[in-house]
Amino acid sequence: MIELEKIKEQFLSEVNGKKLSRSDWERIHTKYIGRKGLITDATIQLKDLPKEQKPQFGKVLNEVKSFVEEKLGEIKEELLKSEDALQEHFDFTLPERKQFVGHTHPLTQILDEIKSIFYGMGFTVADGPEVELDYYNFEAVNIPKDHPARDMQDTFFFSDNVVLRTHTTPVQARMMEKHKPPIRIICPGRVYRKDTPDATHLPVFNQVEGLVVDENVTFADLKGTIGTFVHRMFGKEIGTRFRPSFFSFTEPSAEVDISCIFCKGKGCRVCKNSGWIEIMGSGMVNPKLYEYAGYEKGRYSGYAFGMGVERIAMLAYDVNDLRLFLENDIRFLRQF
Ligand SMILES: [Zn+2]
């Protein structure tokens, strides 16, 4: 009897005022009324009791047993109710919370694409300083001190002899000075000009220039290389056109136009109804540059070209304002 009272007390101390979980409930259920539980045990003991004790013990045992069963039943009901409530608040249709994964800047993507097209044609990348000597930026690429071309380029000067390079052409001059042909390079990089930022001008922008020097290089090689680049960059259906022009470091020189990628040559706002869009400058390397490089006279010929990475990106992505690339507006950048 005393034993049964103890079991009841112990049971109460385990459930009263406790916040029980489902596993707590299972554990307590097993401990008291499971196959080897305390109350089941007491039921077995009943058999061995002297006859006169049996009725009283049996009565108390039944009371304790039904008390425990009833209490466990109540607790289980509460548990089920709170589990239902939890499920109601869990919306299975909610979208998952995505992690934000960044990507390269659209200008970097275009530059990578340009590089990979030229890698495919056997070009390698050459690099040079952005703070450049006046000599390499101007003189060695055939823009002497009194040359009118210097007025065309508004330059940032550190001193009389040191400038922020206004084009990547000095990399070509440095390359030729150090290496004998064959040369087959592209030189991508930042260049600087004193421009006020607007939709089509920035004081800092990226160029990719190319230089090929070898024996028997002709204008046909230049046209083939540029044509292949345009096809890979903009599509097979896009044509190229060479227009006579002037650059001090090439002779003859030509502007390269591509047939308008937006109207396919029919005429639209972007190509100003001409059907053509200018994308780069090019030409045969001016023999004067071979003199600066100290090459054997008359032995080599070559071609060079140069384009603005931002300009190519504007065309490829149909963006009408250069400044958008630099504003770091995530809504803009996420589109690419
Ligand atoms: Zn057009």
Secondary structure blueprint with pairings:
Layout: H1 2-15, H2 22-33, H3 38-48, H4 54-89, H5 106-120, E1 124-125, E2 131-133, H6 134-137, H7 149-152, E3 162-164, H8 169-178, E4 183-192, E5 204-214, H9 219-234, E6 240-247, E7 250-259, E8 276-285, H10 287-293, E9 301-308, H11 309-317, H12 330-333
Parallel strand pairs: 1-4
Antiparallel strand pairs: 2-3, 4-5, 5-9, 6-7, 7-8, 8-9
Bound molecules: zinc ion.
Describe this structure in words.
There is one protein chain. The protein is an alpha+beta fold. It has two domains: 2-89; 106-333, 2-Layer Sandwich (BirA Bifunctional Protein, domain 2). The protein is built from twelve helices and nine strands. A seven-stranded mixed β-sheet has the order 1-4-5-9-8-7-6, with helices on both faces. It has a two-stranded antiparallel sheet with strand order 2-3. Strand 6 (240-247) and strand 7 form a beta hairpin.
Task: Give structural attributes.
single chain; 336 residues; alpha+beta; BirA Bifunctional Protein, domain 2; 2 domains; seven-stranded mixed β-sheet; two-stranded antiparallel sheet; 12 helices; 42% helix; 19% strand; binds zinc ion
What is shown here, in short?
With 336 residues, the protein is an alpha+beta fold. The chain is built from twelve helices and nine strands. It is rod-shaped and about 130 Å long.
